[in-house]
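Lecture 7 notes: from sequence to structure.
We start with the chain below.
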Amino acid sequence: MKKSITSYCISNGRVAQTIWGPLPASSKVLLRNLTKEYAISVAAGDVAYLEGRWYITHCGLLRIAERRRCAGINTTLERHLSDPDSNRWIFKATVFKTPSSKGFVGYGDADPTNVSPRVHGAEMRLAETRAVNRALRKAYGIGICSVEELGSLPAVRRPAEEPNPVANPHPTNGSNNGQPRLRDQLCLLIRQYNLNPTLVKAYAADFCGTEKLGEASRERVEALIRQLAKSAKENRDALQCRLSAYARPQEVTT
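Predicted structure tokens for the same chain:
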């Protein structure tokens, strides 16, 4: 069993560095601890790495709850605190670890001022998600914040002493006008539609006609993001099927 956990930690570390590039030692240690404690999967999108910090995702929290045999989750809209006219919503979530549990409570709020412009119009759903995330983190003692609780998507940055593995004379992820960088936009898209980041990366390289996504021009990456967003919105299942074609075939032993 110990060997299995060690192998899982190594695999998670490799996938993480494939997606986000070289990680500092402190981030590697925290990822290893999260893997051992909660059996999180980087490839499945259980965590995200933003501004040098790890964040748990909604799907990651739900998987943890399922493995820990969560007895149930109840959510209620706090009508007296919400304001439909301004699209401000507040939810209360209660997580029951066992049928006899008194429950762990979490609150979540969302309005146009504390969500990304990309999800305007979905404030009610995001408020409920935030409430559930907070309740789950309390119930299972998860100290790191969830991605969905962030007011906006932070930029993906690395320590100054580390070279950016995707840097080139014409950076695809840079921004000089305060807009989210392309890498951030792609990460947000993956989380929003719960896509497999490893498969998206393989598809992206093929779409851009480069061996690595970092070598593609900004125009091609922008076109990729537009295409992915359109496909995910119109028919997510069809997109998932298309991405599955980029999965590496599993070796069969007899």
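Points to note: Residues 69-139 form a domain with the Double Stranded RNA Binding Domain fold (CATH 3.30.160). Residues 154-179, 249-254 have pLDDT under 50 and may be disordered.
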